[in-house]
Design brief:
With about 190 residues, this protein is an alpha+beta fold. About 45% of the residues lie in helices and about 20% in strands. The chain has a domain of about 130 residues: Beta-Lactamase (2-Layer Sandwich), CATH 3.30.450. Helix 2 packs antiparallel against helix 3 and helix 2 packs parallel to helix 5.
């Protein structure tokens, strides 16, 4: 004849069953996940956090500020004009202005048309042209200069360019600035 479990044994059985039913994993078996913020996450997170409440006309200057944090300079955000022949620089504090660049025959245009990063050695570093892609939509190009470039820079800047494209597309519905910039090249050609 089998004896009944005493109260302590019964409690252990219940706890054991409860553990198996709830999926509880003993502390000794839990994997430790490092959720501390790395440099790239911090950079992209700060940009995202600040852009969330920022007016659209300050997005491009904010991007220039964040690029400076990683040692970048001479930042331009170039948007495709409505005739699809020029890349027009957005104006703003910390951004490199200048004339619109032709899509055909420019390094920025090559990055735009081929949807790929272009790296150009220049006397003071590497000039990078990164396509601003929102899904399959080409928004424009982000251009910047770094002293040197490694794979970590490339990965971070690719992600930054994707975030910038998403922010520009999202904020576009709240302002005429992007429309005016994109149509400025057309007005200049008509003059």
């Amino acid at each position: 004849m089998q004896s009944k479990p005493d109260t302590g044994q019964r409690e252990n059985l219940v706890r054991g069953n409860r553990r198996s039913m709830t999926g509880h994993v003993p502390q000794s078996r839990k994997a430790v996940v490092d959720r501390s913020e790395g440099f790239g996450e911090r950079l992209l997170g700060q940009l995202l956090d600040r852009a969330h409440t920022m007016p659209p006309q300050l997005i491009a200057p904010l991007v220039a500020e964040e690029v400076r944090r990683i040692g970048g300079r001479d930042v331009s955000i170039l948007l495709q004009d409505y005739d699809q022949v020029m890349l027009v620089p957005l104006p703003g504090r910390g951004l490199m202005g200048g004339d619109p660049l032709p899509i055909d025959g420019s390094w920025a245009g090559e990055a735009f048309v081929n949807e790929t990063r272009v790296e150009l050695p220049v006397p003071d570093g590497i000039r990078m042209f990164l396509p601003l892609l929102d899904g399959s939509d080409e928004v424009g190009v982000m251009a910047l200069t770094l002293n040197s470039v490694d794979d970590d820079d490339r990965r971070l800047l690719r992600r930054l360019a994707g975030l910038v494209a998403d922010m520009l597309v999202t904020k576009n519905s709240y302002t005429d600035q992007f429309f005016l910039s994109r149509s400025a090249a057309n007005r200049g050609a008509e003059a």
